Amino acid sequence: MRTILVDDERLALVHLKKLLSAKGKIVVEGTYQDPQMALQDIPALMPDVVFMDIDMPEMSGIDLAEQVQSILPSAQIVFITAYDDYAVKAFELNAIDYVLKPVEAKRLNVTIERLAERAAVTTGPGDGPFIRMIRCFQNLHIDIGAASHQHLRWRTAKAQELFTYLLHKRGKSVRKDSLIELLWPDVDAKKGYTQLYTTIYQVRKALEPYKEQLKIVSCEESYMLMIHQADIDCVQWEHEVQSLPPVSKHSVNKYRELLQRYSGDYLADCDYRWTEGERQRLRSLWLHLVTQIADYLVADNDFPAALEVYHRQVNVYPHIESGYYMLMRLYAELGDRNAVEEMYATLCDMTMSEFGMQPKVAYQAWFERWSANWKRSALEHKV
Questions:
Q1: Are residues 64 and 151 in the same domain?
Q2: 117 in the same domain as 152
Q3: Largest CA distance in the chain
Q4: Where are the 4-aspartylphosphate modifications (predicted)?
Q5: Domain boundaries, position 186
Q6: Which of 65, 150, 307, 323 has the fewest Cβ atoms nearer than 10 Å?
Q7: Is the confidence at residue 134, as pLDDT, over 90?
Q8: How many domains does the chain have?
Q9: Last residue of a domain, which of 227, 253, 273?
Q10: Has residue 12 got a pLDDT over 80?
């Protein structure tokens, strides 16, 4: 593995180079006291690993790591630090390692083993890993490889949210200060940038095996997520919905399939406040799909199938009253008195428990009219 070392302390560089050279697995291509010089040489040297100090006067190791990742995303970063416990805990979250000063040979062996393991994963035999699907309905899941149960996992909740926001804004640049305000609104600017760079580092490392499909690029003071040949379930679903022909006996099964594939609201389990607009938009699209299918089935006198559609709406969105109302009307068409009364009772229980009020006046009025007509019809039949 080729490496460069960056530390403003000359003696620290000499010591680290001596230890690494003795291992036999590392070739030190250059040592730098000036981080800017290291950045200039990285494109030519193409190091596999960069060992860097955190606390340097001209440029912090956090800033340097950020720029290295922008220039050479495949490079592994190892931090050398004399920081206190706070910094140690922060950098412990990174994908490769941190090493405390003064660097000891035994501890450095652990780092080299980790680097070797990562190199074996990324350059091993056979086809590399790939992303099959990015799933955003209900929760974020990134399916990897051929097995349906394998998912990409994140080191921290912040890393997941940062990636998810860039995915949400896919193809658009997002300013760094906007990300800090979104994810760390209560920290000062300096600490905010440290948190951002550390988290970007984590995300890039998580995505590294899939860099041909997902890559975070830096542009001036912004980041952008580039996506290549990786499907997103909600994007794919919306495209198919918008491509649907008018509902008919030939297309109704496709409508039903798309109804089933909507497996939950957009990132519902993530509880990110910035998802609400997209969540409402996709929800409205799904509810419109429900109405289109149900209207067709009712017109075709296929009431059992229409009931199935509206029962799905009630299961997915139990707080929307219209689903209960349509079920009552369908059961009334079928002459099922008990089902109408049970559905109205369920509606009343829902609105009272969730909102502390009775159902909409129009729905109450419909039920009262239906109930009166049923009683009158039953009386006439009896007579």
A1: no
A2: no
A3: 108
A4: 53
A5: 131-227
A6: 150
A7: yes
A8: 3
A9: 227
A10: yes
Q: Are 114 and 157 in the same domain?
A: no
Tell me what pLDDT residue 65 has: 81
Q: pLDDT by residue (tens digit) across 249-278? A: 999 999 999 999 998 999 999 989 999 999
- Mean pLDDT, all residues of the chain: 87
The per-residue pLDDT for 383 is: 52
Report the CATH number that the domain containing residue 172 is assigned in CATH.
1.10.10.10
pLDDT attached to residue 218 = 81
Q: What is the CATH number of the domain that holds 87?
A: 3.40.50.2300
* Same domain flag for 112 and 193: no
Does residue 248 belong to any structural domain of this protein?
no
What string of H, E and C letters represents the secondary structure of the chain?
Answer: CEEEEECCCHHHHHHHHHHHHCCCCCEEEEEECCHHHHHHHHHHHCCCEEEEECCCCCCCHHHHHHHHHHHCCCCEEEEEECCCHHHHHHHCCCCCEEEECCCCHHHHHHHHHHHHHHHHHHCCCCCCCCEEEEECECCCEEEECCCCCCECCCCCHHHHHHHHHHHHCCCCCEEHHHHHHHHCCCCCHHHHHHHHHHHHHHHHHHHHHHCCCEEEEEECCEEEEEECCCCEHHHHHHHHHHCCCCCCCCCHHHHHHHHHHCCCCECHHHCCHHHHHHHHHHHHHHHHHHHHHHHHHHHCCCHHHHHHHHHHHHHHCCCCHHHHHHHHHHHHHCCCHHHHHHHHHHHHHHHHHHHCCCCCHHHHHHHHHHHHHHHHHHHHHHC
Render pLDDT for 39-80 as a digit per residue (tens, 0 to 9): 989 887 888 899 998 888 888 887 788 788 778 877 888 888
- Domain CATH for 275: 1.25.40.10
Q: Prior bond to 129 cis, omega within 30?
A: no
Can you tell me the distance from the alpha carbon of 139 to that of 129, in angstroms, rounded to the nearest whole number?
A: 22
93 band by pLDDT with thresholds 50, 70 and 90? very low
Q: Which residues, including other chains, have CB under 8 Å from residue 114's CB and lie 6 or more apart?
A: 96, 97
